[in-house]
Write a structure and sequence with these properties.
With 215 residues, the protein is an alpha/beta fold. The chain contains nine helices and seven strands. It has a domain of 147 residues: P-loop containing nucleotide triphosphate hydrolases (Rossmann fold). The chain binds adenosine monophosphate.
Length: 215
């Protein structure tokens, strides 16, 4: 299913980012992670970064109007071709806005994949997550450690913990997911082709299941 247009849904810590990077690479889709785009904007100190930073630190969502501008710019700049959205949409309003943008671009969502993980598993997973600030690679000190402790396998940079992966903020992000993002499961379940993948277990197996769902 090369070049397809896919939305990846799932709670924070479901492995969306890890899986999205692999699947997009293997199946020739552009990986668009709104979380990565926002973190880059914060690092660069751009207007967008300044507006988003406070919300992100608290584990709250960045306002829909800001996100819509960002996603519209990204998708328009791509021209044709496939993409995999990771972390967008996250509210009903964003889902509706996305379908308007796609209509204007003459595009459709081919598949929505939900990575399903129980909340108890997530707190543990996220607090042991480490990320590369340079190339955005994602590791886990328990389930997916780098070859050299504390160093990125891809580029050698020192790994860090995201400030929003501290326990209190993780719990807040899960609440936000339940309130604002989980309703999208029903929305896409009735409008589009939604496939549920179990997100607990081996990274390679989950990856294979997602690829199967896209074929
Ligand atoms: P993520 O890396 O996807 O977990 O995103 C990190 C943070 O960026 C989130 O907790 C939000 O503060 C913000 N963010 C990312 N994507 C969105 C979105 N679609 N809508 C609102 N906020 C977002």
């Amino acid at each position: 299913m090369a070049g397809k247009r896919v939305v990846l849904l799932g709670p924070p810590g479901s492995g969306k980012g890890t899986q999205a990077a692999r699947v997009a690479g293997d199946l020739d889709m552009k990986h668009i992670s709104t979380g990565d785009l926002l973190r880059e904007a914060v690092k660069a100190g751009s207007d967008l970064g300044k507006k988003a930073e406070g919300y992100m630190k608290k584990g709250a969502l960045v306002p829909d109007e800001i996100m819509l501008g960002l996603i519209e710019e990204e998708l328009s700049a791509l021209g044709g071709g496939g993409w995999l959205l990771d972390g967008f949409p996250r509210t009903m309003r964003q889902a509706e806005d996305l379908s308007r943008v796609l209509e204007r671009l003459g595009q459709d969502i081919d598949r929505v994949i939900l990575i399903d993980v129980a909340p108890e598993v997530i707190v543990n997973r996220l607090t042991s997550r480490r990320v590369c600030p340079k190339c955005n690679a994602v590791y886990n000190t328990e389930s997916n450690p780098p070859e050299t402790e504390g160093r990125c396998d891809e580029c050698g940079a020192a790994l860090v913990q995201r400030p929003d992966d501290e326990e209190e903020t993780v719990r807040r992000r899960l609440e936000v997911y339940e309130e604002q993002t989980a309703p999208l499961i029903d929305y896409y379940g009735t409008h589009d082709d939604l496939v549920k993948v179990r997100g607990a277990g081996d990274i390679d197996e989950i990856n294979a299941e997602i690829v199967r769902a896209l074929r």
